[in-house]
């Protein structure tokens, strides 16, 4: 009788859709996914248009992104519940990219970003994106929230402003200068929209508060004939279907202009998508496949660029909505994209009546929620080092550039980590329960913690002083889980110093991987001797000291 073969582990690139079907997918799961998909689509409709408008492109591009990108992210992704589409985090970058490179440059940057995300996935780098320190993600998220809110002040108050600056300080100065053009009707619509969104959320959290608030604002503005700018007055009629796919213009000059933006889109897209997948894992108890998720994001961005969309990424708010709505798997995300498409096919003309002030109010609420205020203040109080990383990231994102903020924050976070890990390493003299009869004058010291370049810089002087003492030296590596090439090289130099005194450096209890690194650095007989324990060192078979010439 043949025994069944053991179950093979799922490939890190296998879409969660396939896993869901393998586990069994029936009519009950489909019904739940239809409800969840409709719920998410109701949230995604106004958000997709609002994010696109705030990004400096037409609202239809946000819908294209939700339809095409959202479908592919769920079809190919490594998370069961991830919802892809346009995200508020990209507003600043996309708006700046459009200003500098135009629509063609934006499409090419999104296409290149999709290719880069795919390469990151194929190189299996998805797991490493999650190592970005929490103060960095918190700082750039809060910084983006501030910039999003500042970008909506013009439409919140219906201000008339030509050539709104991109930098936040000149922007605020220009908005203040235009304060006399305030439109009271637009301000009233924005305030009413915000009040409805917040009020409905508190009274009945299950209702689609954003869609209801925007719909009520549109109906009221139309019925009262309020003098406010609408989607139709600024952008004209929305298309009734996505365009046919087409490649953006390709030229070496345009590629060189679009490339820096593509790198920024890639970095932020990878962080945002995997962070969203981690949030979904925490809510559902599942585990996502980071490399499959990155690959899906890459393909989705390429497709979005071909269909006239903007950057696609995992969206935390819509993903959380999907989980809460009872989603059973990726089918709900695909259905959400289908519902958005049906809206465009059937009800696109109705969107023209939506006041831009209402969408600005919606994004103001999104920015307020993005800021994660409680976590921000907690991180400021947690430690001085984390506070510095947080504030530097936040300040650079708000006042300089998003990419600069992420890179500088990550570098500072790395320095903080190195400092903390080096502080965790220590050297001390262990308690020797039995006298070392073979080496009565031997000094035995124990290392604790990982011994890498940071620890070597801090503890190297102490070890050198021990080697200069007129006694032999043994170092116990039992509690050293890791040593890098710098740390290993420092012990090679220590052994050479001991050899000049005609002494052997004894290395006790090194783990196989630690011993391998030490030997690769040149530690070998006769300058060094590896032993498993103090007992072995004290045995008669221990290697003698180097004899004098």
Essential attributes:
549 residues; mainly alpha; Transcription Regulator spoIIAA; 7 strands; disordered N terminus
What does this protein structure show overall?
The protein has helices at residues 16-23, 27-54, 59-76, 91-122, 126-129, 134-156, 168-177, 184-203, 209-224, 231-235, 252-284, 290-306, 316-324, 331-351, 356-370, 373-382, 384-399, 402-424, 453-468, 485-500, 512-520, 534-537; strands spanning 84-85, 313-314, 426-428, 442-448, 472-479, 505-508, 528-531. It is mainly α and 549 residues long. It has two domains: 16-255 and 265-413, no CATH class; 426-537, STAS domain (Transcription Regulator spoIIAA, 2-Layer Sandwich), CATH 3.30.750. Strands 3-4-5-6-7 form a five-stranded mixed sheet. It has a two-stranded antiparallel sheet with strand order 1-2. Helix 6 (134-156) runs parallel beside helix 17. It is elongated and about 100 Å long. The protein starts with 15 loop residues before the first helix and ends in a 12-residue tail after the last helix.
Summarize the structure.
This protein has 549 residues and is mostly helical. Helices cover 64% and strands 5% of the residues. The longest helix is centred in the middle third of the chain and has 33 residues, at 252-284.
